[in-house]
Amino acid sequence: xxxxxxxxxxxxxxxxxxxxxxxxxxxxxxxxxxxxxxxxxxxxxxxxxxxxxxxxxxxxxxxxxxxxxxxxxxxxxxxxxxxxxxxxxxxxxxxxxxxxxxxxxxxxxxxxxxxxxxxxxxxxxxxxxxxxxxxxxxxxxxxxxxxxxxxxxxxxxxxxxxxxxxxxxxxxxxxxxxxxxxxxxxxxxxxxxxxxxxxxxxxxxxxxxxxxxxxxx
Length: 217
Fold this sequence. Notes:
By secondary structure, the chain is mostly helical. Helices cover about 70% and strands about 0% of the residues.
């Protein structure tokens, strides 16, 4: 397998074409319910990244001969153990603890996210470990980037501020509610998928034009 080609495809898949949040629509509850600004987004992204990456890496050593249901239980158990030091870190200081408390139960719920319980079996563990690690990393990065982007947009629309600086003369407080979060997330996801479709169509036409020009020579 060409490593450079794999890396390029993995980067595009994890961040764009199969973006876990905007394109695939997985792990949306924490985003819609608790990702209300930049800081809450960073907290959720940090917990998700550490727990998911370490769990996927550790559980790649679990034998595939073990019954599927038991493997999923093992994955969840490992994720729970990985979460313990993450929780201790975020509760070690007053300021950090307050930001961590703002995301509520949605931080520990990431222990059972579908990247661990489903995509490991359907995608990651079908690859050799070096390729698996790279692909999982890009999927995690894709989720983190989309989560932080969504958190900043939501905070901006909700308060009219960016990192505490007033930018808009008006605000839409309804977006801070649960239903507002789902509406905004659905809107952003639809716009993101529309962009992907436009981009795919553009690339298709470009390839067809290049093919026609080559055939005409």
